[in-house]
Fold:
Amino acid sequence: MRGRNILFGLSGSIAAFKAAGWVHSLVKEDARVNVVMTRSATRFITPLTLGALSGNQVFTDMFSEGEGEPMAHISLPREADVVLIAPATAQTIARLAHGLADDLLSTAVLAATVPVVICPAMNSNMLAHPATCRNIATLRQLGYQVVDPDSGLLACGDEGAGRLPEWDRVRETLLALFSDDDLAGEKVLITAGPTREALDPARYLTNRSSGKMGYALARTARRRGADVVLVSGPVQLDPPPDVELITVETAEEMLGAVLEQAADSSVIIKAAAVADFRPVNNHSHKIKKAEAGSQLELVPNRDILAELGNNRQDNQVLVGFAAESRNHEAEGQRKLRSKNVDLIVVNDILGEDTGFDVDTNQVTLISRDAVQQLELMSKEETANGILDRVVGLLPGE
Ligand code: CTP
Structure:
């Protein structure tokens, strides 16, 4: 979002208070936000609030003196990278569908040549009315991007569709507009997180993987246009929007899910920290101290990545991870060859900014013909760096 210019239009719905939080989120991510409010929006939340949150003057009226910008309906969309309308009421949607230009927001949308993203929010009956359905269909035909509302309890007390969507889904829609579409048409299978190998109903063996790197890959691959399937071990992360999530617990379950998805995947990225061993017995009752010995008997799990490498589909790109505490590059080179993959992403699990559960990473990318060190960056930026290499490995590139 850094440096992006967002023209943020609010219309008159109780959901305007949530959209105010989105303005704050965008500003925290270093976007520049210019707010335009319809007259009804100002009945729900004040321009003062949005001015304070955006750090910029708020525009409410085409003809208001003192708003300082005589041609705001032209200059605001001209400067913007995207127009976001949230909440978009039935009235605003109808105005835009008919090309009306009777207030500042509708006029600015007509003047905009950048993408327009619309987030409807209203009572479910109003949303389901044929007139609203037709107007939303018209907006889509006009090339506007309409984010489907969420369902749930509405402010009026009804249950149904019409809630303003979660910010995460809207944020991803905006970021996809700012991203290349270079993975469009590819099915990308990603694994993430740890696995858990049960000893008894109370105890298991696991590792410290948080899943953040795999989830960042899933989000960024989706933004770049891929169809993404994410096979995830147990993690404390929100599911990325618009990604097929398959949750598993054990390495054996992960193997089953991956093999089911692998045949038609053009790219497979194994970011999961799969347990190498599992207990021989998973006891059905809690093991009692008095009965337990001091030794754990383990059997090896199958190596999912090595199996994929040995049974490659034509033109499939295979990416593995190597989380290392020493001999990083040598271990990466060994895994590249022993698992027969195209790219190994090596990271240092002992580094303060590169270890488990942090939001940054610094990785080395090892392919058959190159070793490339990426800078210390956020996990999402690192994911984009990895995907740049993946795109270069696709057939025809
Ligand atoms: N991997 C896998 N299945 C396993 C073990 C590992 O698919 N049973 C994958 C991981 O997802 C990762 C890569 O293999 O992409 C390397 O995992 P890592 O744990 O670093 O290496 P190991 O193969 O376990 O080797 P070592 O224990 O010698 O480090």
Residues 11 and 41 are 5 Å apart (CA to CA). The two ends are 28 Å apart (CA to CA). Residues 251, 270, 272, 274, 276, 301, 303-305, 320-323, 335 surround cytidine-5'-triphosphate (CB under 6 Å). The chain has two domains: 5-177, 187-393.
